[in-house]
Design brief:
The protein is α+β, with helices and mostly antiparallel strands and 346 residues long. It contains 14 helices and eleven strands. The radius of gyration is 28 Å and the shape is elongated.
Length: 346
């Protein structure tokens, strides 16, 4: 069985990835026989000359290829469980302190392009967009919307029968109204993500650098991008701190977020309003009232007890969510789907 390094070298020798070897060999002054006929014989020398001119490559620094897989951070892998524990580095080669991601030719991939990684990038980009997309505004909207639920409980439809039938009616009404009100909040969130350039910026930055994936100080996290063609005549280096460049790439990639409902599971129900024991409590309150007050099920005290309890539970939910986007989306029972153009011109 071939090692990862053997596969990597073969890939470099057979296509676009060979340019990494061409550049590193030229930087180290080593002779290298180019296998890909589309790469100019002096491309490596031309690119290295430009890198020296731009002070990306300085005299005496260590230059080498990245030829190993790296472990993902746990808080990243949690959103991408189907992925391998170790992943390809975003850094292609290192020149001193410059951890360079190489983009060759007319276009190149921004990232892996998988749904799992897009989900991981979504949550980390959202966390970094906190100042521009504050969660507090959306929690206020959520609280305001859910306060409407108490009105529907306080004024239930007339029900004939015992407390069990009444309980079913109340819970059914709550579920229906909660679903409608949640959709309004979800739409607000979706609009906020897509209208704020901050989200697109951070999503693109993290996708290009691998910072959330591997950690800022990891050798696998790129801190600069080198864009070249096969002639070596047009080499341009962009540090990861070049915000204008990241914004340009984000505009070309155009990440768009959609929030979709997810089927309830035992885990997700723990984050939903019904997982907080509301349904069971309504049953108990109605049963206790029925046993003490007979058939007087429309007595105001019964509804007051239910509404009071619902308000207390929702206050706990708001406190539990805190400043966590993950918990908010879990409570709303939605999952992100990010669509973006992965193969773009750099």
């Amino acid at each position: 069985m071939k090692t990862f390094k053997q596969h990597l070298i073969e890939a470099r020798g057979s296509g676009g990835l060979e340019m990494e070897q061409v550049i590193v060999s030229a930087a180290k002054g080593e002779k290298y026989t180019i296998k890909n006929k589309s790469i100019a014989p002096d491309a490596g020398d031309k690119i290295v000359t430009q890198l020296k001119k731009d002070r990306v490559l300085k005299k005496g620094v260590n230059v080498y290829l990245i030829d190993k897989l790296y472990s993902m951070r746990k808080d990243y892998a949690a959103f991408w469980p189907e992925a391998a524990k170790k992943q390809k580095s975003k850094t292609d080669f290192i020149m001193g302190k410059n951890k360079i991601s190489l983009k060759t030719g007319n276009s190149a991939n921004l990232g892996e392009g998988t749904r799992g990684e897009a989900t991981a990038l979504f949550y980390h980009a959202l966390e970094r967009s906190g100042n521009d997309i504050p969660i507090g505004k959306h929690l206020d909207r959520l609280e305001k919307n859910y306060s409407k639920l108490w009105q529907s409980v306080s004024n239930p439809a007339d029900v004939k029968g015992d407390y069990k039938e009444l309980g079913k009616t109340i819970k059914s009404k709550l579920v229906e109204d909660a679903r409608k009100l949640s959709k309004e909040v979800v739409k607000d969130l979706q609009d906020a993500f897509n209208k704020h350039p901050s989200f697109a910026y951070h999503f693109t930055y993290l996708n290009m650098t691998g910072e959330a994936k591997f950690g800022k100080n990891s050798p696998a996290t790129a801190n600069g991008f080198l864009v070249v063609d096969h002639s070596g005549n047009h080499a341009k280096y962009h540090p990861a701190t070049d915000d204008a460049y990241i914004k340009t790439i984000a505009a070309r990639s155009k990440p768009v977020c959609r929030l979709r409902g997810k089927p309830p599971t035992k885990k997700s129900q723990g984050y939903s309003i019904w997982g907080m024991g509301i349904g069971q409590t309504i049953d108990k309150l109605l049963k206790d009232s029925f046993e003490t007050e007979g058939n007087l099920l429309t007595e105001a005290t019964v509804w007051n007890k239910i509404v009071t309890y619902l308000k207390k539970v929702f206050a706990r939910i708001i406190k539990w969510i805190g400043d966590s986007w993950i918990k908010l989306l879990s409570f709303l029972q939605v999952t992100p789907e990010v669509i973006y153009k992965n193969n773009i011109k750099f």
